[in-house]
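Recap from last week: sequence in, structure out.
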Amino acid sequence: MDDFNFLILPNGIKVVHKEINSTRLVHAGIVLDVGSRDEDPDELGLAHFWEHMAFKGTKKRKAYHILSRLDSVGGELNAYTTKEKVCFYASVLDTYVDKAVDIISDITFNSVFPEKQIEKERGVILEEMSMYYDSPEDAIQDDFDEIVFSGHPLGNNILGTKQSVLNFTKDDFLKFISKNMDTSRMVFSITGNISWKKVLKLCDKYLSIHEPRVRSSNREEFKNYIPRHVEIKRPTTQAHCAIGCEAYNLHDEKRLPFFTLTNILGGPAMSSRLNMGIREKYGYVYAIDASYQSFTDTGLFSIFFATEQKQLKRCINLVNKELEKLKTTKLGSLQLHKAKGQIMGQLAMAEENNVSLMLLMAKSLLDLGRIESLKEIFSRIDSISAEDLLEVSNEILQSDQLSLLTFLPQNH
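Predicted structure tokens:
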């Protein structure tokens, strides 16, 4: 972590900083190790609802003052929820960094969840649900989580259910936060035109003042993946398809080789095997992607595409053909060299985006307990062999272990 400054505050909050003088902007965020997988069955969607409600009033500010505080100086305030994280972050000109840290600290620790605002926000979240449901590309991803992680919190939709969202009260938010917030599992990350000395002052003023909090709930580990094949009729014009299975967790040494393999198969490059073999060769799809997501105790490999229903079976066969190739045919040295170069380029571009870098530093600290430099990651990518890729493809891409979800047009 030579390029970063790091500190643990007395209350357990980890602070990580990288100074970047080539910009006038500062990006700061608080990332909490709490997500939708930490919800009990009667709390589905509560983490995401909390993320919305954090902007709706604190002990010292009303919703308007929260939203306008950074808007008025050209800054941005934002948040997101995932299966394992909730994050509040801001981007401002360096002149206004004090305001930014003040506001993200305030909404993280001092939200009051006014009943009137809860009622209003229910409608907003129900609209968000409808929007996702109306978009089969988004809906199939959520439904596929449910197929792979069936019966486990990781399979639950981050937005919750209509019923759960309609039932939440102020007490539910306070109980969930009290049970899940842990200052030792929280990172304040900051990048941009700001010195370490200034960061320490801001931490003293806005973060050290909070009492230590300890989480009282434990995450349920995911076990016993069972492949499933599910077909759903939906009002769509195309057939939508998801294929995938459980994969490596984020602590597994095989994570990087498998990430490389997924990138070769269906990453963002137009030359990915799925894109070349199904879109370019046959014109059966507009887009086809493979992705790999790792969690603390498991992972998810998935392929998504949409096509005319009459071509669906042919597309699934072509996907399986590409998966078989990865398991049986070793990559040549030139192919492997190109694949590594592609990933390194993508990672370097992600790190050049200072907001992404700020969030990446926080997540890396929470998940791995350290931050790897690009140099370290590149060195690990360089050491991946064609044999490593064959090994992970044969471990994960077994045809009898693949789950399949299809949305079929209702009128066919």
